[in-house]
Design goal:
Largest sheet: 2 strands, antiparallel
Number of strands: 2
Structural class: mainly alpha
Radius of gyration: 19 Å
Mean pLDDT: 83
Length: 193
């Protein structure tokens, strides 16, 4: 039942992304509503699996990222976007360990927008841009960081059981994937050899 709370976030996120990419209101709305008709969204909407909630959080986060980039490239005020962007950053990371990848990419995009604003302004906007980026991280940490902090304190790995490596160097050791995912549970009996 918890997925019902996240599905509207996915719908609104797709609508906002569509508008950011230049789609008409009706096309963006139709695409957002179509999200609710995806078979896996319908099937998991009444379960406690986190896949639909995670997808909705990622969609919503990238919608906020697009909004922040548009404001960074313009002259608008970014502070009203900080709570929403930070909350969705935290939810993206906190819902599933694999949320680190989209969260990192989205944050890099926002930081790129901040760099663009800094280079195109005459005074010291880098201080304000830096404060906005730190505020987004703080809000994200408060919303979704508790689970990662708990994992770090108990296991020494904030994204446990996932192994985190960069360029072949293991940053946080984890359990091999074959031990984390039980294939006998995830593959129906009909499809098993």
């Amino acid at each position: 039942v918890t997925n019902f709370l996240f599905i509207p976030l996915g719908v609104v996120g797709i609508l906002c992304l569509g508008r950011s990419l230049g789609a008409s209101r009706s096309c963006a709305l139709l695409t957002g509503v179509a999200y609710m008709l995806i078979p896996i969204v319908v099937a998991q909407s009444v379960t406690s699996y986190v896949d639909v909630a995670f997808a909705s959080c990622v969609i919503g986060f990238f919608a906020m990222v697009c909004s922040m980039i548009e404001e960074f490239c313009g002259t608008g005020c970014l502070w009203p976007l900080v709570p929403g962007t930070g909350c969705l950053l935290g939810l993206t990371v906190g819902t599933k360990a694999s949320g680190l990848a989209p969260a990192f990419l989205g944050f890099l995009a926002v930081a790129g927008g901040a760099l663009f604003r800094t280079r195109n302004a005459g005074h010291r906007p880098h201080v304000a841009s830096g404060k906005i980026l730190v505020a987004v991280l703080l809000v994200g940490g408060l919303v979704g960081g508790y689970w990662n902090l708990r994992n770090w304190l108990l296991t020494g790995n904030p994204v446990f059981p996932v192994r985190l490596a960069f360029l072949g160097t293991t940053i946080f050791p984890g359990i091999p994937l074959k031990f984390v995912i039980n294939e006998s549970i995830n593959i129906s009996e009909i499809l098993r050899p």
